[in-house]
Amino acid sequence: MERYGRNRKTHSARLGIIAAILVGLLSGAVSSQAGQAPPETAVVSGYEQLRAAGEYDEATLGELLLGELNCLSCHRLEVGAPERVATKSAPDLRRIAARAAPAWIQSFIEAPQQTKAGTTMPAALAGFAAEDQQRLAEDLTHFLVAQSYAAAPPAYAAFRFRAAIERGRDLYDSVGCSACHPPAEVVTDSVSVPKGDLASKWNVDALTAFLLNPDSVRYGSRMPSLHLTDSEARDLAVYLLREQEPRRVEYLPGFEFEYFTHPAPTDPAADAADGPRPDLSGLEPDGSGRINRLSLDLPISTRYRHHSYRFSGLLRVEAAGSYTVTVASDRNAAAEFWLDGELLTAKARGAVRQGSATADLTPGLLAVEVVYYRGEGGTRPTLDVTVATSSGDSVPLERLVVI
Predict the structure, then answer these.
(1) What gap in Å lies between CA 398 and CA 240, rounded to an integer?
(2) Which CATH code fits 255-402?
(3) What sign for the dihedral angle of Cα 229, 232, 234, 240?
(4) How far is 358 from 344, CA to CA, in rounded Å?
(5) Which of the following CATH numbers is that of domain 162-244: 1.10.760.10, 3.40.50.150, 1.25.40.10, 3.90.79.10?
(6) What pTM value is reported for the model?
(7) How far apart are CA 106 and CA 135, in angstroms?
(8) pLDDT for residue 146 is more than 80
(9) How far apart are CA 5 and CA 147, in angstroms?
(10) If you ran DSSP here, which 8-state letter would residue 225 be given?
(11) Does the pLDDT value for residue 39 go beyond 60?
């Protein structure tokens, strides 16, 4: 990062015109990646699907490409373009260094298809001698980084909570990302809008900001707002950039916790009944952090009633077998144990003090969540979760969970 953005005066004068051209060239990037060999030409997913349907003539498909490839940003038809053909807005390059790594910027300018297979960004430097292409790409990168409002961080944070990655994985499908992009574990296919190598380009903060407001990067973006909360956008960003993880991962014992408060019900009598707990999906926690053991005694300020706790981590299963999970809490509280996104067992409000269930598990790491909700006060609040093997050994959950 340090070698980019220096000697601004030296580069700015001769690069102003080139940068202006680059703004137009960078509009409308779409990529393709799949289990198959990456394409060597631009991929326009809408065109590919309509052409395969066989219901449109070549002139109609050509009009689509005029807009999707942004031909009319540089060219003009002698008879005039149809009004329905609109050019696409270009991404805002004033903040490019805040969201893209300088090495990625240079690589993309120098060899767009090799950096993002299927992109509609043309090879602007193809007409120059091979020995000049790298120099010009580096000059342009210096200019773009120097004129950016903010510089990208020099390095990515190495550690990520595993639970955040698993939450992001679930969000990718549940909020609709896979409606336009390849499935979560597929890098590219020929009819979806490719994601490209996100891990070499973005950082978590920048991608989180983009997911919250796509228009902040590309005005009039076709990427819709998914109406994510701040925490959802960050979980999704961490998942999409999971390849930034170091090869050697350090797992820490304990849980991620989130603490939520809820308004008092208008009918206290109804709240005292065996009602369900509040739905926490989409809610912003009042506090969050990391804790070494499963405890309602959090290192933040809490209150006595109308609140929820959510503990997340990874269950470390070392041997295959049947495991019995028991969840216990005070009578006035509800408690649940979720395993890999599925509710395994629960203890309802006003019911017996515990609930249990058995599952056959294989060795590995499984995402777990423990949720506790307490409405009106009463007995002393308690929460306890134990795991027993088929041999009868029972241990507290916290001895098996890492983040």
Answers:
(1) 28
(2) 2.60.120.1560
(3) negative
(4) 8
(5) 1.10.760.10
(6) 0.55
(7) 10
(8) yes
(9) 8
(10) -
(11) no
Length of the chain counted residue by residue: 403
Which pair of structure tokens corresponds to residue 340? 């890999």
Rounded to whole angstroms, the Cα distance separating 108 from 26 reads 10
H or E segment at 334?
A: strand 333-339
The answer to whether residues 385 and 326 touch, using CB atoms and an 8 Å cutoff, is yes
Measured distance CA(92)–CA(147) in Å, rounded: 12
Q: What is the CA radius of gyration of the chain?
A: 26
Has residue 385 got a pLDDT over 80?
yes
DSSP letters of 20-71? HHHHHHTTT------SSPPPSS---HHHHHHHHHT-S-HHHHHHHHHHHTTG
Token couple for 46: 């809408």
Mean pLDDT of the chain: 78
pLDDT at residue 270 greater than cutoff 60: no
CA-CA distance, 290 to 97, in Å (whole number)?
32
Stretch (H or E) spanning 345: strand 342-347
The answer to whether the beta carbons of residues 8 and 157 sit under 8 Å apart is: no
Instruction: Summarize pLDDT for 175-226 with one digit per residue, the tens.
Output: 988 888 877 666 555 567 777 788 888 888 889 989 999 887 777 677 888 8
Q: What tens digit of pLDDT does each residue of 319-341 get?
A: 999 999 999 998 888 999 999 88
Of the pLDDT bands very low, low, confident and very high (cuts 50, 70, 90), residue 154 is: very low
Q: At what angle do helices 130-146 and 8-25 cross, to 10 degrees?
A: 100
Q: Nearest CA to 253 among 336, 314, 299, 297?
A: 314
What counts of helices (H) and strands (E) characterise the chain?
12, 11
What is each CA distance from 44 to 16, 53, 64, 118, 265, in whole angstroms? 30, 15, 9, 8, 52
CB 278 within 8 A of CB 308: yes
Domain chopping of the chain, boundaries? 8-146, 162-244, 255-402
Predicted confidence (pLDDT) at residue 14 exceeds the cutoff of 70: no
Given this chain, do its domains 162-244 and 255-402 carry the same CATH topology?
no
Instruction: Single out the residue of 28, 1, 9, 2 nearest to residue 143, CA to CA.
Output: 9
